[in-house]
Write a structure and sequence with these properties.
Elements lengths: L2 E4 L5 E3 H4 L22 E3 L25 H17 L3 H16 L9 H25 L3 H27 L9 E4 L5 E3 L17 E3 L4
Antiparallel strand pairs: 1-2, 1-3, 4-5, 4-6
Helix pairs in contact: 2-3, 4-5
């Protein structure tokens, strides 16, 4: 009997326990914990391969360039959330002020089309996460590795939702609620929130409902 593991929250589907072969499950099967689609499950291996260490990280570091105000705002916002999780209130407030300041200096991002965002997201998942993880691992940056794990899972979930919306249209959003984790960006669709965020494990009160107009 085979086992499949959810790449988002780690839930394990065990054929021996469930009594149903994974391959015969319907294509609209979703993880009972985080609502990830069946496509985001992977075979459970006894010894999953770790990211290969590189001896030279210089080729994986992004070329130096000037960051946009919105990128700087996002960096400070992420740092603020990290400080909040560590209960560093003063540092969190200072970092949040910096994030808010640079956000006011950023231009509008609303001219991006749905397709533009989806293409950029797929590009990040396909290329940049692996490069970033290699660089972080070579430099023994545990904080960066943890952040990358969170953001990669949140991005994979968002990609799945984009693909569903492309196929199903607005009907996908009917009779359901949408929540976003204020710490890692994980998106949850459903009525019964899990007790903790499936990705970063903060309490469910950090999953903020998205207001729709």
């Amino acid at each position: 009997m085979k086992k499949q593991i959810c790449s988002i929250c780690g839930y394990i589907y065990d054929e021996a326990v469930k009594g149903v072969k994974w391959d015969v499950l319907p294509n609209d099967y979703f993880c009972p914990v985080c609502s990830a689609h069946k496509s985001l499950f992977n075979p459970l291996q006894d010894n999953p391969a770790e990211i290969k260490k590189e001896t030279d990280s210089s080729t994986h570091i992004e070329a130096i360039r000037e960051l946009s105000p919105l990128e700087i705002s996002a960096i400070f916002s992420s740092l603020a959330k990290g400080a909040e999780k560590q209960r560093l209130d003063l540092e969190m407030q200072a970092l949040k002020k910096l994030s808010d300041y640079f956000k006011t200096k950023a231009g509008s991002e609303y001219d991006k089309s749905f397709k533009d965002v989806f293409v950029q997201l797929e590009n990040d998942i396909a290329k940049h996460f692996d490069e970033a993880k290699i660089t972080a691992k070579v430099n023994a940056d545990r904080g960066a590795l943890r952040s990358l794990v969170w953001s990669e899972k949140a991005s994979a979930m968002m990609s799945m939702l984009f693909e569903r919306f492309t196929n199903e249209g607005p009907s996908m959003l009917e009779n359901t609620k949408i929540y976003v984790c204020d710490i890692c960006g994980f998106i949850y669709m459903g009525s019964d929130l899990p007790d903790i965020c499936p990705v970063c494990k903060v309490p469910k009160y950090k999953l903020i409902e998205v207001e729709r107009r």
